[in-house]
Write a structure and sequence with these properties.
By secondary structure, the protein is mainly β. It is 0% helix and 37% strand. A six-stranded antiparallel β-sheet has the order 2-1-11-10-7-8, with no helix packed on it. The chain starts with a strand and ends in a 35-residue tail after the last strand.
């Protein structure tokens, strides 16, 4: 799920973007706040989901002092990419991220046969699985077939497999 990294009280926190549009508002304390509804505010930066929340676009009113990766948003529209820095009026920063966390879910994908990336056995609807957040390949994670956590990394791409691994990138590296 896409999220924003917002700085709050000297720490970076992840705020999930739940698939609905939201608004960024600069605060007087130098932080950027995420507001779930579109409000009447002098500085308006709207984050709008595209393609079911897989992609997000930043929309800014004309004259809004929004910068993305240090560059002014001249057209008022920008499709966001992973790790894009958003800055409004020089009063705070936020980072957009589309990095996902690995999570256990019952498989509910297409009816066509999908095979586990590790054991190459079929994955059927309702089976307990993990979709690799990096390569999007499915792995079993049932009590008798724990293909996702069987090894330290994904069978395909090297993504770490601990279910509590957290995000691989955080803005601390940018400070």
């Amino acid at each position: 799920m896409a999220h924003l990294w917002l700085r709050n009280e000297q720490a970076w926190n992840s705020a999930p973007l739940g698939g609905d549009r939201c608004m960024l508002i600069p605060s007087d304390t130098g932080e950027i706040l995420l507001h779930p509804n579109i409000t009447d505010h002098a500085v308006r930066v709207v984050l709008e989901p595209l393609a079911g929340g897989e992609a997000w676009v930043a929309l800014a009113s004309p004259g809004t002092p929004l910068r993305v990766n240090g560059q002014p948003l001249l057209t008022g529209v920008r499709v966001l990419a992973d790790r894009d820095e958003l800055q409004i009026m020089g009063r705070g920063r936020a980072f957009f991220s589309n990095e996902r966390l690995a999570r256990i879910t019952p498989y509910s994908g297409p009816d066509e046969v999908v095979t586990c990336a590790r054991c190459q056995q079929p994955i059927e609807r309702g089976m307990v699985t993990v979709c690799c957040p990096a390569c999007q390949r499915w792995h079993h994670q049932e009590p008798t077939r724990n293909c996702w956590t069987y090894a330290a990394t994904c069978a395909v791409c090297g993504q770490p497999t601990p279910l509590d691994a957290g995000y691989r990138w955080t803005p601390q590296a940018e400070d």
